[in-house]
Amino acid sequence: MKTTIDPCIDHRSRVGAERRERTRSRLVESALRVFTEHGVQTGTIDRVIRTAEVSRGTFYNYFRTDEDLYGAVATEVGNELIRIVNPLVLPHADPAARVACGIRLVIGLARGNRVLAEFLVRGGPGALRHGLMIEQVVLRDIALGIDSGAFSVRDTRLALDLLLGPVSQAFHTVLGDEFPEGYAQGLAQGVLQALGVPQSKAARLCAAMLDEAVIPADSLFCRAGGRMVR
Amino acid sequence: MKTTIDPCIDHRSRVGAERRERTRSRLVESALRVFTEHGVQTGTIDRVIRTAEVSRGTFYNYFRTDEDLYGAVATEVGNELIRIVNPLVLPHADPAARVACGIRLVIGLARGNRVLAEFLVRGGPGALRHGLMIEQVVLRDIALGIDSGAFSVRDTRLALDLLLGPVSQAFHTVLGDEFPEGYAQGLAQGVLQALGVPQSKAARLCAAMLDEAVIPADSLFCRAGGRMVR
Amino acid sequence: MKTTIDPCIDHRSRVGAERRERTRSRLVESALRVFTEHGVQTGTIDRVIRTAEVSRGTFYNYFRTDEDLYGAVATEVGNELIRIVNPLVLPHADPAARVACGIRLVIGLARGNRVLAEFLVRGGPGALRHGLMIEQVVLRDIALGIDSGAFSVRDTRLALDLLLGPVSQAFHTVLGDEFPEGYAQGLAQGVLQALGVPQSKAARLCAAMLDEAVIPADSLFCRAGGRMVR
Amino acid sequence: MKTTIDPCIDHRSRVGAERRERTRSRLVESALRVFTEHGVQTGTIDRVIRTAEVSRGTFYNYFRTDEDLYGAVATEVGNELIRIVNPLVLPHADPAARVACGIRLVIGLARGNRVLAEFLVRGGPGALRHGLMIEQVVLRDIALGIDSGAFSVRDTRLALDLLLGPVSQAFHTVLGDEFPEGYAQGLAQGVLQALGVPQSKAARLCAAMLDEAVIPADSLFCRAGGRMVR
DNA sequence: CATGAATGAGGGTTCATTCAT
DNA sequence: CATGAATGAACCCTCATTCAT
């Protein structure tokens, strides 16, 4: 009605939007923590709102159902992974190098941050399918490898299974008691060979020095309480 | 006088034991069917007893909790798998051949019987750990391959992840819409290569003719309602 | 700005707290009624929530188990008894007079309000031990009587058994078909004599006029549906 | 049909009757043990048949419901009490002496045999009402005392409450941690005084020497596993 | 938007009792 | 009579979701 109050509304709505975003983040963080500690199962919401110190009603202002929440967390986890790993993978031109690098980095991250590993394990095989990580990154490099002749596999689907399968198992191993020396390199090498990269090249690529990925202190994984291990 | 009673008692207890065994089987079958159709989640018991046409109380005469039931089913599924696949794998002396054969057979079985595939997918990664299958069969052949030098992988754990990971993903693919031509052979070949078998040998082994495994009509998988597909 | 929010919050939380208190009261009342009519046994919760016209979930927002509920009711019953009887007992300086007065009043109350009698009988001997009644009132007067030489009993435990035992039986009698003329006085006199008060004094004290205790209309006992008898 | 088989039938039926009686006894014993250890509550029958090493069906050949069983046990406990106590009470001509003697003996028995005390406590106040003990023995002596002028109480019902009340509490005390010196005599004396026996006479009667009641080794109480204490 | 009391469908478990063998 | 598998009504309890304030 009065144009003079516009800036005021603007201010209010901007403040409100920020508030809203902060609350949402708190919920996602708390949910990740809860999934990590208790798995994806019944009783989640109670724990989440207690962890986030938010009321029940507030929760439902942000997520309509618990699956909605799960999807949001999985998506953000995927995006965060990309944000951390992608910059370190992209410099490599060779698709095989990219895959090797990506696998080793992800396993390294999971080792250093149990929150991540737990979530991927607890969430089941579906956890990796949410968000955009798979689509954007893995498929991109697989396609590149097939097209360039670096991989001898012919089928995209098959390649995906040969890659994600071992990585998925790796998360289990990461959480287990014993973590064999050179496991990450070995796994990456195995995957490359499975895709058709010659053993010698695979071995060489996986033995290469690797800058360890570093999780930013303000990352979702850290905010969700992941204590750095090792 | 005394001896005339014995057979009577024997008869009674034998009849009782048989009845008991039949009921237990009905429950396990029904549970497998339910897991298959609805996944491993809440609400299981109700559905199982309805499917088995058995009272609530009867259920608890056999299984103390739903996890107990799940364990029983997983164990029996594993045992049944061994019973079917093992005889066809054992004739091969070469560990690589065994692995190739085993993988292809299992995928074939899963294709032919959705009950099996669904259960393995729905049950999550844990489903394969129950029972004795892994211990007895897979580890046996992996150890054989490592010891004989057929595989170049050094670590058992690593080898296991490189093998079970892709197979696990394969079950997903089996249930999906598209099943690429030559997928099973491709996957087996990939696994062999991952384990360090030279590409040429891997390709040859996986292209070999293979007697399709046949599921006995009285098998748990069939009793549980698996419609044969293709 | 800030201060204008506070009253709002205050208001909300006050309304919430009141509502909560009302619901809790409804549950306790209903429970007392149920214990009274059906005894303390299995099947309580269902009946309570039906009587209180409250959902199952609501019940568990207030009491974690049925024993929890029982404890709450017993405690409140005890407290209510004290609240009613104590003011009439305290004016007496003589411990023997206090005991006589207390016993007669309680029996009178039980006669006038079956809810009370039923609960004390159904709840078993443990019902009287909850809350603070015994500790605060009975033991206080017994100790007084022993110390002042009014009672010849020496042991507190013994005195308690000689007092609570007959009173406990009295509740049964109150609920029975026949209630002998002068029963309450007789019982009180017997207890005093048991404690060592001379027969003549005991008789005199128990024959004294007694203002009947009156149960406030808003008392738990009335709210729980006790129809006044006689 | 044939008269010649009569003796045979007789023999068979006699043997059968004995068998039957033995099984019934086993069940009653087991039930007493179970009531003693777990109280009178749900889950009884399972425990009883397991203790008696008898099948479910057999149980129902002897008792139609669980209350039926409880009644049988209470009755037998009462009868056994009479069988042990009565012979030691009857020699006394004075009703006051009889009551004093009876109370002291019963408390002594309960002290020496926890099975007895537990059952009487667990079973609630109703336990003493079953069977014939009360009718035959207690009432007999109370009537005697009133008629002879030994007791000044006038009402039978009142006298019963003044007697059974304290005894009932005594069972609780017997099971408690501390058992005051001279408790049994004190309680008996208190009861006598309550009934109107002069303090001096009551004190004298309760201080008299007392042959301790001895529980026959083949008594129900012993067979039910009561370890003798003290 | 925040709050938290209330909801109630949904699931799990027990146990007295029946009944075919 | 003995047996024990089967029954199912009756309970207890949880938790995702709604809604008045």
Describe this structure in words.
The structure is a homotetramer of 230-residue chains. By secondary structure, the first copy, chain A, is mainly α. Chain A has a domain at 70-223: Tetracycline Repressor, domain 2 (Orthogonal Bundle), CATH 1.10.357.10. Chain A is built from 11 helices and no strands. Chain A has helices at residues 6-38, 44-52, 56-62, 66-89, 95-112, 114-122, 133-148, 156-175, 183-195, 199-207, 220-223. The longest helix of chain A is centred in the N-terminal third of the chain and has 33 residues, at 6-38. Chain A is elongated. Chain A starts with 5 loop residues before the first helix and ends in a 7-residue tail after the last helix. The mean pLDDT of chain A is 87. The interface between A and B is large, with 36 and 36 residues. The structure holds a DNA duplex (21 and 21 nucleotides).
